[in-house]
Amino acid sequence: MRLFLTGATGFVGAHVAQMAALQGAELRLLTRSSSNTKNLPIGAEIVVGDLREPEKFASALAGCDALIHVAADYRLWVPDPAEMYKANVEGTRELLRLAREAGVRRVVYTSSVATMGFKKDGTIVDEETPVSEADMIGHYKRSKWMAEQVAMEAARAGQQVIILNPTTPIGSLDTKPTPTGRIVVDFLNGNFPAYVDTGLNLVDVDEIARMHLVALERGTPGERYILGGENLTLKQILDRLAAITGLPSPTMKVPHAVAMAFALFDEAITGKLRGKEPRATVEAVRMGRKMMFASSAKAERELGLRVMSVENALRSACAWFVANGYAPAPPKTV
Questions:
Q1: Which of 123, 126, 139, 160 is the right S-S partner for 81, CB 3.0 to 4.6 Å?
Q2: Considering its fold, how many domains does the chain have in total?
Q3: Is 245 part of any domain?
Q4: Can you tell me the distance from the alpha carbon of 285 to that of 277, in angstroms, rounded to the nearest whole number?
């Protein structure tokens, strides 16, 4: 199989690329000119391009059997939101069009669990939970929602597009790191003095990667599949990290109003005045008011998703961040 993969230098995409290479796929990997390519599989064909200008790499889709579109602008704060929509929404629209024109047989589009209809009371949601664009908080969630609609429209028009909705992946190779990876890094560095009352569904990134390749073969076009693991509060996640590392878990809970005040201050000073990404964002705090608990029962039934403890994934993330200089070694060996 000749596979065109976007986002291979990102967290999830790197794991998809490595697993596909192990399964014998012939890989064409889209990377930006500024991307760090050290985690890419040896022997893969590198295609330099940008989702904001997909027509410039259109010829690389020729002869490909499948497309896995993982790449996205994944930031909870951006100085120019228009660039996020251009990459996530219009980039997806054009890439799907180019894939159709090139005769690519199957497409897996990586959406996000962020497009689901989460509630403040911790209700466990699934693919059928009612939701609308009005429920999307911030530019990232809204752009992913809009891109998902583009993918579903393409499927309704006859293109074989399968939509995957990973929850919150955790594991190695989180180079940037992602917002969830930052939780681990901050914890390892002793920069987590308090927590807010929120919840996430954590999933091993290796299982997310495996599901991408399974979905190419078994997924139903036009269907969405939540790919998740354990539903945990932030406090439970921090307690797990404490047990793994021997570092103390914070005991002070901060009200959302205090977290919001800090985020407003940080965005004003760090974001607007210094032009850098804030440590705390208004969008993240607003998202944190909802417990992002989800069910992966559909993916379990139809794709064979293995829902498992994230203990090993958290341990792998800690070990990788320490080994790569993001944090000092903790009291316990990870």
A1: 139
A2: 1
A3: no
A4: 15
